[in-house]
Amino acid sequence: MRFCMSIGCNNPIEPNQDFCDDCLQVQKTQSLNTEIDQHEPEAKADKNKVRMHLITGGMARAITEVAKVGTFGANKYSDGGWVFVPDGFRRYEDAQQRHAAARHMGEDNDQESGLLHLAHEAWNALAKLDLALRKG
């Protein structure tokens, strides 16, 4: 049995559907309400703003797995210490590629942490991105 892809919805759906009828109706209603004058009581000027829930809600399972990798690392080393690793970008690139190589050789989980190699890859990608953004 498949379930609706909407965040927080667990309604069953047909094999050829992605969303339940209730969520489809909400989506249609929301698309109709985008032209409300911003000074009306129900208005909220969200147009062109980052929609964080698409990641934090829509990918909650993946984010949780990456957070497990971060927790493993913090317990092994220190909270936030990854930011200060010398030549961090290159070293996280190497770590990301080691996890990718292990996964390509058929290993799903890291032997040391027991966590998915894909989650380790994602953590390392986020660490690289954050280091790059800090440089400006």
Rg over CA atoms: 20 Å
Shape: flat
The largest beta-sheet arranges its strands as 1-2
Number of helices: 5
Percent range for β-strand residues: under 5%
- How far is the first residue's CA from the last residue's CA? 47 Å
- How many strands in all? 2
Give the oligomeric state. Answer: single chain
Share of helix among residues?
40-55%
Question: Mean pLDDT, nearest integer?
Answer: 89
Instruction: Write the element-wise H/E pattern from the N-terminal end onward.
Output: EEHHHHH
Textual characterization of the structure:
With 136 residues, the chain is mostly helical. It folds into two domains: 2-45, no CATH class; 60-135, no CATH class. Helix content is 51%, strand content 3%. It has five helices and two strands, in the order E-E-H-H-H-H-H. A two-stranded antiparallel sheet has the order 1-2. It is flat and about 50 Å long.
Key words describing this protein structure:
single chain, 136 residues, mainly alpha
Short structural description:
By secondary structure, the protein is mainly alpha-helical.
Write the layout of secondary structure elements.
Blueprint: E1 2-3, E2 12-13, H1 21-32, H2 53-56, H3 60-76, H4 88-104, H5 117-135
Antiparallel strand pairs: 1-2
